[in-house]
Amino acid sequence: MATMKLVLILMMTTIVAVWARDPELTTDFAVPVGMNASLINGDFFTFTGLRNFSAAPNTFGSKKVTHVEFPALTGLGVGVTLLEYKPNTLNPPHTHARGSELIFVMAGHLDVGLIDSANKLYSAHLHEGDLFVFPQGLVHFQINMSKEKSVLAISAFGSSNAGTISMPRNIFGSGIEDEVLLQAFKITSAELMKLKAPFTPTM
Questions:
Q1: Rg (CA), the chain
Q2: Does 94 show up as a binding residue in the annotation?
Q3: Where is this chain's protein located in or outside the cell (predicted)?
């Protein structure tokens, strides 16, 4: 089973790479500014930051690996995020502006969904070993409905820095004028304050 998981992860990373949106390299790989290329060895192409990752209790947690955390990814059109969903936790609706996402469930069951530009919802209940793709730029989410078991998954991206725009945080925590939100969501000022509260910095 472990070998099958590894093969699937490598396959999905390769598939996502085909649709990469990053600028094309004109060299074998990108050498960081200030680094002597002759001194590069296998360590440059190795990332160990996912070892022993675990989300905080009662939360959804993730550890992203972009070109920022792993410079060897620069220009290669791939990125990865390790995801853990503690029981009854959610990765809220969000988008990735610069790359599609391919998620692979390594342990547990995960409910996922995406919404297209015609406002149609596509949802699925994923089991261990299942894959689901979220096309670039479309709003999507994942939720662990289990009250007892955590879910572990890994996502591959068609960009070395796909970016994440979280709908709740970006809408209610970005400083958009209240009048805009009141009219857009047809809510009262009191309701708006409740929605903004989790994203308002505390003094």
A1: 19
A2: yes
A3: Secreted, Extracellular space, Apoplast
Cβ neighbours around 193 below 10 Å, total: 13
101 annotated to a ligand binding site: yes
Does 56-162 carry CATH code 3.30.479.20? no
**126 within 8 A of 50, measured Cβ to Cβ:** no
Cα separation, 187 vs 21, whole angstroms = 38
Tokens 């970016």, residue? 163
Do 65 and 155 form a contact (C-beta atoms < 8 A)? no
Q: Is 91 annotated as a binding residue?
A: yes
Burial (CB count within 10 angstroms: exposed 0-12, middle 13-18, buried 19+), residue 47: middle
> Is 41 part of any known ligand binding site?
no
pLDDT along the chain (203 residues), means of 10: 57 51 79 92 96 93 94 94 97 95 98 97 98 97 97 96 93 94 95 91 62
Residue 17: per-residue pLDDT: 46
State the span(s) of the chain assigned CATH 2.60.120.10. 56-162
Strand order in 101-107's β-sheet?
60-65, 79-85, 151-157, 101-107, 131-134
